[in-house]
Amino acid sequence: MLASCVRLVPTIVRLVHSPICNPSRSLMDLKALISSLNDFASLSFAENWDNVGLLVEPSPPHTVNTLFLTNDLTEEVMEEALQKKADLILSYHPPIFRPMKHITWKTWKERLVIRALENRVGIYSPHTAYDALPQGVNSWLAKGLGSCTSSPIHPSKAPKCPTEGTHRIEFSINHTQDLDKVMSAVKRIADVSVTFSARTDDEQQTRISLNCTEKALLQVVAFLSQNRELYQKTEILSLEKPLLLNTGMGRLCILEDSVSLGTMIERIKRHLKLSHVRLALGVGRTLDTQVKVVALCAGSGSQVLQGVEADLYLTGEMSHHDILDAASQGINVILCEHSNTERGFLSDLRDMLDAHLENKINIILSESDRDPVHVV
C-alpha cells in the first residue's frame, strides 16, 4: 500500500455580494406566494377572454427565493431567467394563451413549457388583471402625461363568488300548504338562498324572494313551470355587482393645464424612454393644437378607446381603420408599439410587490426583455 502525503495550503475566501441572491431574505412556498399575488391583484379583474394565473407549476413542494419579472417571456428571456436562478417567472403577457395540443420541441412556446418544467420554474401571468388595478399598468402610463385626474374608461365590477347569486326571482303563493311544498323543493336546489323572509302582501298572498346562481335559477323556473297552480306574479331580476372605484380598463385623463400636442409627444417619449413614436394627426389638427383630454390604453387600445371623446388617444397599437375613424373625428393618435406602453410599469411593480410580500424574496427585472419592433 502506498502512503500518501496531504499538504494543507491556507486559502483566502472572498465574499462577493450578489444582487441576485440576498441572504437576508427567506423562501416562500409557491402556493403561499400565488395566494399573495392573487391578493395583490384579484384575477377576477382580468378580461373574460384572458388566460391569467399560474400557467406552469412544478411538482410540489416548490419554494421560491427569486421572482423574475418580464413583460414577454421569449426564449432569450427564459435563458436569462434560468441563469439568474429564478424559481418563478411573472410574465405580464401569458406565454400560454391558446390551448396546446402537444408539448414538443417544435414551437418556441412549447419549448418554454418544457424548459420551465425541466428546471422547476413556475410561470405566472396577471395580464389584464394588472391593467385594471388602480395603481396598475394604465395608471403608470398616465403618469407620463403630467398633472391630471383619471378614471377608468370601462370600470370593473366587484368580484363575485362562484356560488353567489346572479339573479333574484320573486313570486307569490296563495296557500300555506303550497308554501311548504315550494320551500321544500327549493331547499333541494344548490346555490339558492332566501334573501327576504316570506311576507304577506295586501292580497293575503305570501311573497317569496330567492337569490340564485344562473344554473340554480333554471332549476327553480323548471320547478315552477311544472307546478303553475302554486304561484303567480313572477319577476326575475338580474343582480349586478357595484362598480369599483378607480378600477377598470383604460383611463380617461383630464389635464390640469392643457398643453400643445408637440409638448405632449415629448412628455410621452420621455416617460417611455423612446426616441420615436408614431403620430396620426386628427383632421384639422397640428402640433400646436391644445390637448386637454387624453384617453389611453396600454398595449392594444382599439376596442377600449373606440367611441371615447378625447383630444388624444395614447396606446401601443391600433388597427389602420380605427386610426382613420379617430382622425376623422379630429382625435390625434399616438402609437408607441405594444409592449413599450407596458414594460416600464415593471419597475413600479417590483417596488409594490417588495412591500406587499414584506421583502421575503428576491425580485428582479429582466434585462433582455424588449419590444420586438425597432426603428431602423
Task: Kindly describe this structure.
There is one protein chain. The chain has eleven helices and 19 strands. With 376 residues, it is α/β, with parallel strands linked by helices. The protein folds into three domains: 28-129, Udp-n-acetylmuramoylalanyl-d-glutamate--2,6- Diaminopimelate Ligase, Chain: A, domain 1, CATH 3.40.1390; 133-157 and 247-339, NIF3 (NGG1p interacting factor 3)-like (Udp-n-acetylmuramoylalanyl-d-glutamate--2,6- Diaminopimelate Ligase, Chain: A, domain 1), CATH 3.40.1390; 167-238, BMC (bacterial microcompartment) domain (Alpha-Beta Plaits, 2-Layer Sandwich), CATH 3.30.70. A hairpin with a 5-residue loop joins strand 10 and strand 11 (206-212). Mean pLDDT is 89; it is low at 1-21.
